[in-house]
Amino acid sequence: MISFYPGPSKIYPEVASFMQKAAKAGILSVNHRSEEFVDLSKKTITLLKKKLNIPANYSVFFTSSATECWEIIAQSLTQESSFHIFNGAFGQKWFEYAYKIRYKSIDYPFLPDSTLDVEDIFIPLACEIICITQNETSNGSQITDDILVALNKKFPEKLIAVDATSSLAGIDLNIAHADIWFASVQKCFGLPAGMSILICSPRAIKRAEAIHENLHYNSLSAMIERMNDWQTTYTPNVLSIYLLYQTLQITPVIKQTDKIIKQRAEKWYEFVSGFKSIQPMIVNSESRSRTVICVTGDQAHIKKIKASAKKAGITLGNGYGKWAKNTFRIANFPAISEKEITTLKKFLKQHIK
Length: 353
Ligand SMILES: *Cc1c(COP(=O)(O)O)cnc(C)c1O
Prior knowledge:
With about 350 residues, the protein is α/β, with parallel strands linked by helices. Helix content is about 40%, strand content about 15%. It is built from eleven helices and 15 strands. Helix 1 (about 15-25) crosses helix 8 (about 240-250). Pyridoxal-5'-phosphate (PLP) binds near residues 65, 137, 163 and 184.
């Protein structure tokens, strides 16, 4: 079975041997306050920062999911309200989670295919943080770096938090252009689910320390304190940290991965545009995700393609939310091989007019 599901997605084939290596190394029962753990945590974060081009003065934390990061941001970095700019299901879910914690939070939905014009956006003073989904996994759209730059320029006092769950480790994101970034590892990192990475700018750290919210096991101020010693507030997923460390060692620096992913994306869009009965869901090429290709067509046709793919041993990403029936999604994540892409293209040529 080949998986093009955009999360949980195909893992790096080497993960199986890394898991055996972890068992042999005794890492699976390591104490999370031990020197051994501290060493692993420090090595992993250092390598992650190097490989993903994360500014040296930014901090990295381990959390258990992107969903947890949504809550941490609402709990520990928001006192009154957050402002949510989104065009799909994940951005909307983030807003809904934040709203339950900070009920004055505001949503700013926009259409997936429209370019977001920052000049049109008005954010009340009481909104302290802008929340935006860089790569909207549900419909295959993306926010460009220009938009982050424009948001920074127009709203210099507000923190900017970016959900990059399906793009971090896939494309070269300019981390310095926002204060908070997060992603879980079951997408572009090519790892099994169960962990997420949270990245904070010095400004975000300062804000968390000033707010000093300490009601939760995952209050950011407590996480910062523990991370001073490369530790976590609770017993973390040590196996996942170990697997992250091992895969980071065998994967290229992000600039190189970015080049491959963008070339593959361009070819995917070209390929999908070559059929009469299907087209890329996002028409505007700037707004097209480079890591999740969303394909739309007639409902019955899409249904048939999905079913035949399954029979052929290929898992396509189902459509998501309101796009469940008229789309399928193709993950364009780094762990997917050229050979697998060729197999899928061959299959699609045979089954689509
Ligand atoms: C998958 C995904 C999430 C949810 O990730 P979890 O690890 O399940 O919490 C959030 N945001 C985006 C953009 C995603 O693609």
